[in-house]
Amino acid sequence: MGNLGPMEILVIAGVALLLFGGKRLADIGGGLGQGIKAFKQGLREANEDEKSDAAAKESKESKGA
Length: 65
Prior knowledge:
- With 65 residues, the protein is mainly α.
- The protein has one domain (6-64).
- It has helices at residues 6-20, 22-64.
- α1 (6-20) crosses α2.
- The longest helix has 43 residues, at 22-64.
- It is elongated.
- The N and C termini lie far apart (59 Å).
């Protein structure tokens, strides 16, 4: 299994265009973009929650000492 070259990518894109049509491909691309955006936002929120939990734990430990 090798790498995909430019010709192979064009063939795949052409077949996808024939199968789904231009409008449907635009809808699929938009949905995929929204999904990626939501996933990144969820990761960002999880990281922020993790940092705030660590800061709260650290402040509790420093108050208890």
